[in-house]
Design goal:
The chain folds into 2 domains: 98 residues; 38 residues, no CATH class. Helices cover 75% and strands 3% of the residues. It has 3 helices and 2 strands. A hairpin with an 8-residue loop joins strand 1 and strand 2.
Length: 144
């Protein structure tokens, strides 16, 4: 009883059919997981939004309470609320200045931009000005 082995064409056809089935199955799995993740992310987003709004309202009530405490300690009403308002403006100014200072120093994707410039220069026939150094402990390559 000799069994005839399949031809190469049949084998390739079977492999292609199996690969197509595998890709379709993986695509369906990814879609199902994606839908589940979207639902969970939506729920989490709602919970965090509720927490943020509730926390902000709590902060406002805390500030009003502090102002009334200052009034109860003998300050006029305008002074108690004025002090709380002044402290808020001082905090806003300090954090705004710190943010401005940090944003002036912010250089997003510095290494990527430098590498793109090097690549353009090399592709146009030039020599790169700097060598790219990749250190195993660093997460981002450094320019030398």
């Amino acid at each position: 009883m000799s069994q005839e082995s399949p031809s190469i064409r049949q084998l390739v056809s079977e492999v292609a059919k199996d690969a197509k089935h595998l890709l379709q199955t993986q695509s369906e799995l990814a879609k199902l997981e994606s839908d589940k993740v979207k639902g969970e992310a939506s729920t989490l987003g709602g919970l965090f939004a509720t927490a943020a709004v509730t926390g902000a309202l709590g902060g406002i009530f805390l500030l009003v309470t502090i102002a009334w405490i200052l009034v109860a300690l003998g300050l006029p009403t305008w002074a108690g609320f004025g002090i709380v308002t002044l402290v808020l403006f001082i905090v806003a100014a300090v954090t705004g200045l710190l943010g401005k200072k940090k944003s002036d120093a912010f250089q997003p994707m510095k290494t990527t931009k430098a590498e793109l410039e090097r690549t353009k220069k090399v592709l146009s026939g030039g020599q790169p000005d700097t060598a790219l150094v990749v250190r195993p402990t660093a997460s981002v390559p450094e320019q030398r």
